[in-house]
From TrEMBL:
It comes from Micromonospora parva. This is Beta-xylanase. Residues 1-44 form the signal peptide. It catalyses: Endohydrolysis of (1->4)-beta-D-xylosidic linkages in xylans. Its EC number is 3.2.1.8. SMART domains: CBD_II (SM00637), Glyco_10 (SM00633). Pfam families: Glyco_hydro_10 (PF00331). Belongs to the glycosyl hydrolase 10 (cellulase F) family. PROSITE patterns: CBM2, GH10_1, GH10_2. Transmembrane segments: none annotated. It comes from the Bacteria. Residues 344-368 are annotated as: Disordered.
């Protein structure tokens, strides 16, 4: 089943928090200007990040700050991934170890590593019953509510502009068949604590996507999945600023992948939120299951990307289950090949463009080559374009988008940018006679224009 594009209202994708797209685009522009480091531009089709970018998605991993000095680790990280989630460094015990005294060193280190290489950052997590510092564990009632909201505000403010999506609230629902909220000190402050956290995060960083994140919410038939679905539906109906839902997707023998996963993703997306696979690992790393997860995400227009919860098996919180894409030596496993193939060949959404660019391809004057722009996949907030060059094997093509559009990723060429960020000069880099790019529409669906093609 392929999902059709679902938009809840005609308002900008990120609701009243419309500046989100601008920041995403700015982050993406940073990525694009760091093209030499951007997996999405260097070797399309041969790395997870590059292949995901071609589908307008990201492929991320959890990162531990204390492993950034391990060159075997960073070699894979820098080569394969274009999104990063700090595994523990943004959690409450790490960022506010003493009440009112914030500590961002390890998280900043990961953010800096990622952003300087054009990777985006998912923030994890602002409000959670677990990994609370001692001072918070012993709090209750209105004092805890205030402390939690202050934490959300301070941390989201610190990382404002650097984090594209936040797991605002993590794991707030109980396992089993009850469909109830998980009991916790936060829950006991009142059932509205989750929406209060979202509103505080929205006020602190109106541009980040705000996600609810949980595990065992992957199987559409499970009570916990339905309970989260009902909460998100309620939030959307009441204007609570939620933008996305994270599906941790820790699959194992007790909690296996089910083929209704795609239904789960598409059903949530139909509520008007993005969906993201946030902590993927699969016991034994069966290639077919990894492939299925990626295909499911690609089949849902609002599935933004996939994050695996670690790089090598030895980096996993469940190392003995060997659940990741690289073995302890950093070698690619069969699951890696399956994921890469799925990203390269996989399903793309069949959303019919509602306002497609329809003008004929532009063949610009100048130079001794011709560059033809073709429309690619279109999503709710962005679209792909491909430019094919004839008449030269080595070329320079200038493409312009119209403000407030921003090009968020490119492949098969080496881009540079003018000061406005709207004019991209793409040079061939040996990848062939075509290149591609993703444009964040930011409400403007005008077709990018090829301004010139010059043999070089
Ligand atoms: O760094 C200390 C080390 O100094 C000490 O010697 C050692 C002794 O136990 O602990 C180390 O800290 C551990 C930390 O991971 C870093 O390895 C903590 O004890 C341990 O509790 C912590 O586990 C993390 C777990 O969340 C905590 O709940 C895992 O790394 C992390 O992968 C895991 O991630 C969670 C997501 O946040 C939410 N979803 C589930 C997922 C898996 O549990």
């Amino acid at each position: 089943m392929i999902e059709r594009c679902q938009e809840d209202t005609p308002r900008p994708r990120f609701g009243p928090r419309a500046r989100t797209a601008v920041v995403l685009a700015a982050a993406a522009l940073l990525a694009a200007t760091s093209a030499a480091f951007l997996p999405g531009t260097a070797s399309a089709g041969t790395t997870l990040g590059a292949s995901a970018a071609e589908k307008g998605r990201y492929f991320g991993t959890a990162v531990a700050a204390n492993k950034l000095s391990d060159s075997a680790y960073t070699t894979i990280l820098n080569r394969e991934f274009n999104s990063v989630t700090p595994e523990n460094e943004m959690k409450i015990d790490a960022t506010e170890p003493q009440q009112g005294r914030f500590s961002y060193g390890a998280a900043d280190q990961i953010v800096s590593h990622a952003r300087s290489r054009g990777m985006s950052v998912r923030g994890h997590t602002l409000a959670w019953h677990s990994q609370q510092p001692g001072w918070m564990q012993s709090m209750s009632g209105s004092a805890l509510r205030q402390a939690m909201l202050n934490h959300v505000t301070q941390v989201a403010t610190h990382f404002r502009g650097q984090v594209v999506a936040w797991d605002v609230v993590n794991e707030a629902f109980a396992d089993g068949s009850s469909g109830a909220r998980r009991d916790s000190n936060l829950q006991r402050t009142g059932n509205d604590w989750i929406e209060a956290a979202f509103r505080a995060a929205d006020a602190a960083d109106p541009n980040a996507k705000l996600c609810y994140n949980d595990y065992n919410t992957d199987n559409w038939t499970h009570a916990k999945t339905q309970a989260v679905y009902n909460m998100v539906r309620d939030f959307k109906s009441r204007g609570v600023p939620i933008d996305c839902v994270g599906f941790q997707s820790h699959f194992n023998n007790d909690s296996p992948y089910n083929s209704n996963y795609r239904t789960t993703l598409s059903s949530f997306a139909a509520l008007g939120v993005d969906v993201q696979v946030t902590e993927l690992d699969i016991q034994g790393a069966p290639a077919n299951t990894y492939r299925a997860v990626v295909e499911d995400c690609l089949a849902v227009a609002r599935c933004n990307g996939v994050t695996v919860w670690g790089i090598r098996d030895s980096d996993s919180w469940r190392a003995s289950q060997t659940p990741l894409l690289f073995n302890n030596s950093g070698q690619k496993k069969a699951a890696y090949d399956a994921v890469l193939a799925a990203l390269n060949n996989g399903t793309t959404p069949t959303d019919p463009p509602t306002n497609p660019p329809t003008t004929p391809p532009t063949n610009p004057p100048g130079g001794s080559c011709t560059a033809t722009l073709q429309d690619g996949t279109r999503w709710g907030d962005r679209f792909n374009s491909t430019v094919t060059v004839s008449g030269a094997s080595s070329w320079t093509v200038v493409v312009a988008v119209t403000s407030p559009q921003k090009i968020s990723s490119t492949w098969n060429g080496s881009p540079t940018w003018d000061s406005s960020g709207n004019v991209m000069t793409m040079r061939s880099n040996g990848s062939g006679n075509s290149f591609g790019f993703t444009t964040m529409a930011n409400g403007n669906w005008n077709r990018p224009v090829v301004q010139s093609c010059t043999a070089s």
